[in-house]
Amino acid sequence: MFDVAVSQLTTPRWDLAQDLAAVVEHGLGALSLWRPKLSDTGLEAVAASLAAAGVRVSSLQWVGGFTGGEGRTFSEAVADASEAIVSAATIGSGAGLGDGRPPVVVVHTGCRGGHTRSHAVRLLVEALESLLPAARSEGVVLAIRPMHPQVSAGCSFLTRLDESLGLVERFADRHVRLAVDLWQCADAPEFDALAPRLAAVAGLVHVADRCGPPAAHADRLPPGRGGLPLEARVSQLVGCGYEGDFEFDPVGELVQELGYAAAFAEIRGVADAWRDRLLAAPTSRPRRVDPPHHPLRDVQRRGAGAGSRRSQASIQTVSRG
């Protein structure tokens, strides 16, 4: 009903052993893996550590940049994403902690760059169609993460919830989902109207608070430290049938000042309070129904070529957005 994970983006100075110890100590059950930390430790060692700790992986972050804005070719970006799909599947199966929930790989589209918007969309669609056979075979979900216009520079050209929903819905494939970041969109005027659709196609929900409008250098605060209606949005998504992870990922100066251990304790306290109120609320809600499989028909396709496999994990940095 309300499964809580914490992201390794919250604890950039901790190693995997420290992350796992904190997750276990606070009874959170799941951890989102950051690819640079995965590279530091190695797939087999990570899977063994997860299994020993009894901790499930909520997501692997991140892949994308298919528009070339990060200096890689389209083929390199697709090859890197293919590598991440295999990594997510390997970690999930190696840890042996599956609960029927597929591993999630978070996708950033890349900036529009010098492309027309329609061409940027075609590049994203082409990349997803190239990756889908592997995602289906490995049982991995690709979760596209739209971003607020104020923080999307260099990361994503998908800045509207309705447009992002439409893209995912046109795929109508349970392996292509949306990563809903409440830090970006909890106060969006259209959220209420879109909530049922968001719950139906969300593969992951990111949770962090903020004060004021989104800004490139604004902190991702622990829930309750800002002014976003986070509990209301979480309750709304659960009420509309969302059954995936809520991934808490505060990042910034306040987390550093609090200390990672205190941030974990705060997340645990907020999660407990929200869960108690959710359990006390009326329980009738619609069941989530996965859309049927069929190819995207109304966007031009182009073939993807093979390219060098320069890992995105080597160039990722912690981003508040």
Task: Describe what you observe in this structure.
The longest helix is centred in the first third of the chain and has 22 residues, at 74-95. Helix content is 42%, strand content 14%. The protein is of the alpha/beta class and 321 residues long. It has an eight-stranded parallel beta barrel, surrounded by seven helices. It has one domain: Divalent-metal-dependent TIM barrel enzymes (TIM Barrel, Alpha-Beta Barrel), CATH 3.20.20. Helix 4 (74-95) packs parallel to helix 5 (117-138). Residues 284-315 have low confidence and may be disordered. The chain has helices at residues 16-25, 35-41, 43-53, 74-95, 117-138, 161-171, 182-185, 191-201, 230-239, 253-258, 260-280, and strands spanning 3-7, 30-34, 56-64, 104-108, 141-144, 176-181, 202-207, 245-248. Helix 6 links the parallel strand 5 (141-144) and strand 6. The chain contains eleven helices and eight strands.
Helix content range: 40-55%
Q: Which architecture does the CATH hierarchy give at level 2? A: Alpha-Beta Barrel
Distance between the termini: 26 Å
CATH class (first level) name: Alpha Beta
Order of strands side by side in the largest beta sheet? 1-2-3-4-5-6-7-8
| Beta-strand residue percentage | 5-15%
- Fill in the CATH topology: TIM Barrel
| Radius of gyration based on Cα positions | 18 Å
Q: Please state the structural category.
A: alpha/beta
Given the structure, what is the number of helices? 11
CATH superfamily: Divalent-metal-dependent TIM barrel enzymes
What does the average pLDDT come to? Answer: 87
Q: How many structural domains does the protein architecture include?
A: 1
Write the H/E string, N to C: EHEHHEHEHEHEHHEHEHH
